Amino acid sequence: MRREAGVVVALGRRALSVQFRRAQLLMPTFVLPLMLLAVIASGTSAAQDLRGFPDVGSYLAFVVPGTLIQGALLAGLTSGIAFAGDIEFGFFDRLLAAPVRRSSLILGRQAGTIGLSLLQSVFFLGVAALAGAHFEGSPLALLAAVGLAAITAVGLGGVASAIAIRTGSLSLLQSIFPFMFVLLFTAPAFFPRDLLAPALHDVAAYNPLTYVVEAVRGLLTGDASAGGAGAGLAAAVGMAVAATALATFALRERLRTL
Amino acid sequence: MSAVALALWRRSLNEVLRVRGALLPATVAPVVFMLGISGQFGELTGLRGFPTDSYLSWIVPLSCLQGAGFAGAATGSNLARDIEQGWFDRLLVAPVPRPLLLVGPILGGITRSLVPATVVLVVGLAIGAELPGGVPGLIALYVACIGFCAIAGLWGVFMALMFRTQQAGPLMQQGVFLAVFLSTAYTPEVLLRGWLADVAEYNPVTYVLQLARQATVEGIEPSWAHTWPGLLALAGMGAALLALALWALRRLGR
User: Which end of chain B has fewer CB atoms at under 10 Å, N or C?
Assistant: First the structure.
């Protein structure tokens, strides 16, 4: 058990260090969400004048949860892309020959995703605070929000890893970016759920990211009515467990058909 | 000489025919973005000063430009691949003027860009976007898309010639992304607040968007007053980026 934990940590560390060595992979995960945050915060802040828009002290703080979840989505996706790269370039075959549990190979990748998401979320919150966002939530609540984003990244990373394992195609993983964004846009990431378009409002109720993003908003703004932490945690953990199981199952299937 | 440009144009189009799904991400991403953004921010049309009551109509031209821009930026990624794999070196020793080597790929990008721009427009109209500008508006929209694709293509080519690696791909894409979103992407100028209002006023893409929006936005009717700023912006950006691309091309191999 201890040895397997060591394997998971080592693979997680490797996943992170590879990520930081490839600046072209880091650019989208760290810069893109911030760019979108800056544009949305400034471009749509007039929305506060709309009837039905909740009374928020800081509009920037209101839209930051969308950025955190976008970061989690990109962290998960980059993890899947890196996984597909390992498969395509043969590194994963060498790992398969090692005397370790197969599930540790998945969990190691997921550990790297957690690390990346934690760094991202802290970076995003730091930049937002410097830009004037005022978070009413307690320090513990901010930590919980960062943790929630990391668990969400594990869920999305699990889905991306499962696709990587099933297909082994780097180019396919690079092109699923827009499809993953469907999840973000069908959740109240940047706008209150009650003000979404009617069709989107109905779809949002079935999207687990809705509950995560509302929980993160509730934690950051210190306003429990914005979203329940319990529902967010349940949705994030549910996604993480289901997606990790999916990736492990995909690996088992791949080995069976080798 | 034009045969060289035509041959390279045909070669860049072959990629679409030979690589299955090559156009899929560039087409699907703007559609997803259009649906997502219009669903999220649709209520913004309720604000005083918004020129239309259909947010989808406001966003369709933006997504068309985005799709055309990404198709243009892909020209840079393809050139970077050709440089990395040595194919472009072989072209450089051919007895043709070097600028002609760029004409074909840029034309290829423009041709490819018509697919995402048209798909976005058709999907937008199918789900409720309006077309008050009629045929003149549509012509303005396509001129804006083709012009913006050429601009994005020149930007991508400049990046490719400077960095000579496919790893510069994100820079090419994000350059387009930034140019589009630091404009009146989500709301008209009167509703922008803070730094973005100043940036959007000086961003030439704001005027290209105005050119494109003549097709679908009720409050921006087709007129010369809404057209010339966009054409001037396209010409200015095109001249600057063409000069940079030609300068980078001259440096290649020195």
Answer: C
Q: Is the pLDDT of residue A177 over 80?
A: no
B185 CB near a chain A CB, below 8 Å? yes
B97 part of contact set with chain A, CB < 8 Å = no
Q: What count of Cα atoms within 13 Å lies in the side-chain half-sphere of residue A43?
A: 23
Are the C-beta atoms of A43 and A36 separated by less than 8 Å? no
User: What does the block give as tokens for A42?
Assistant: 């400034």
Task: Please tell me whether residue B39 adopts helix, strand or coil conformation.
Answer: helix
Contacts of A27 in chain B (CB under 8 A): 170-171, 174
Q: Which residue of A has its CA nearest to B36?
A: A185
Q: What's the token pair of residue B73?
A: 């930026």
Contacts of A188 in chain B (CB under 8 A): 40
Residue length of chain A: 258
| Chain A / chain B CB contacts < 8 angstroms | 108
Q: What's the gap in Å between the CA of A53 and the closest CA on chain B?
A: 10
For residue B19, the chain A residue with the least C-alpha distance is A171
For chain A, the first-to-last Cα distance in angstroms comes to 27
Question: What is the rounded CA–CA span in Å between residue A212 and residue A207?
Answer: 9
| pLDDT tens readout for residues A82-115 | 888 888 888 888 888 888 888 888 899 899 999 9
Number of structural domains in chain B? 1
**Can you read off the two tokens belonging to residue A155?**
């869920």
Exposed / middle / buried, residue B117 (Cβ in 10 Å: 0-12, 13-18, 19+)? buried
B234 CB-near residues (< 8 Å, 6+ apart): B144, B147, B148, B150, B151, B204, B208, B211
Statement: residue B94 has pLDDT above 90: no
Token duo for residue B226: 């809404």
Range of the domain at B62: 2-251
Note down the domain range covering A212: 2-45+53-256
Dihedral class, residue A228 (left if φ above 0, else alpha if ψ from -120 to 50, else beta) = beta
Single pTM value for the model: 0.81
Number of domains forming the structure of chain A = 1
Rounded to whole angstroms, the Cα distance separating B231 from B144 reads 8
Interface of B with A in 47-66 (CB under 8 A): 47
List Cα–Cα distances, B108 to B7, B13, B53, B91, B97, in angstroms: 10, 6, 37, 17, 19
Whole-angstrom distance, CA of residue A213 vs CA of residue A68: 8
